[in-house]
Amino acid sequence: MLDFIVFRTIFILILGASAGYFRPPDTPFWAAALVGAALGVMAIILERRVARITLERLFGVVFGMVAGLFCAALVSLVIGQAGASNAFHFVQIVCLLLFAYVGAVTGASKGDLLNLSALGGLFGAEADQRSNQKILDTSVIIDGRIADIADTGFLDGTLVVPQFVLHELQMVADSADSMKRNRGRRGLDILQRIQKMAHLKVQIVNEDFAQIPEVDMKLIELAKVYKCKIITNDFNLNKVAHVRGVDVLNINELANSLKPIVLPGELMRVFILKEGKEYNQGVAYLDDGTMVVVDNARRMISKTIDISVTSVLQTTAGKMIFGKYDERSQSVAAAAAGDRSQTTASTLERRDPPPRREQAVGGE
Predict the structure, then answer these.
(1) How far, rounded to the nearest angstrom, does the alpha carbon of residue 27 sit from its chain's CA centroid?
(2) Which pLDDT tens digit goes with each residue over 302-345?
(3) Domains of the chain (ranges plus CATH)?
């Protein structure tokens, strides 16, 4: 980055010095040098803007401008037949600028429709590289599960981290609230852990949409520019991105899809942790965090019991399992188990001890 700054500074100085050296005779040196330096600054601004444009849109601009210049040349030929006054020359210049501008803007707006991968070669390689990129959200970095998923090899390619996401992480890590500060520092540690993985490449990009204040909308616009997906666990960002036509990889949806399938009628053993909202209900949790609501289990708090699954409710926020505890069947099973143990013990007691063999010490 420092090399680019030095190179651009040298470019501006050379352009300003050249403009001052080749100035008209009646123009001061510093005025011409300032004009040349201003042109250099404008060229650098244009170069930064062009660097953010996708290759499809750049081709669209070029094709549109060429088509506009061709149309302007035809109009100029027709107008040139009418005369050669200053008014006609002005009209020709206006047509040249107008058609070139309209062509460039139209080509830029329709350039995303071009399929450069069909040409193969360099264009196909760039399309493949862009399609293998994924943008990380602030929430998914703080969550931390993305590092475990990446460590298993389910993620490949390039993970894009925008500069404004890093800034938001730093703001959270520097927060006065201790809980937020710990979350922000944990997010930075997770990002460093991902950077050390050999099969993944983490790319920090400087694209920032200054006219958009919300970070979520910046992520969506960046995903449109890069034509890649967003990895997040934010429910609202997931919905807004789908509305705006951007694909999203939601960590929460992945976690829900990996939870074990439970069918009604199955038996499962749970630990009743607390009381439920309804009458005579108990609440338990599985190892993956799934909530289990058990009827007739209010008196079994802090105990491990066997329940029968009655229904399963799947929502976008997660999965809930509803079950029922049958105290009578549990009592019958416990009594049967007690009878079996008592019968076994009595059987062992009734057994005669094995005969002991006595050996004679001496003869009769």
Answers:
(1) 56
(2) 999 999 999 988 776 667 899 999 876 555 555 555 555 565 55
(3) 11-116 (no CATH), 132-257 (3.40.50.1010), 267-328 (2.40.50)
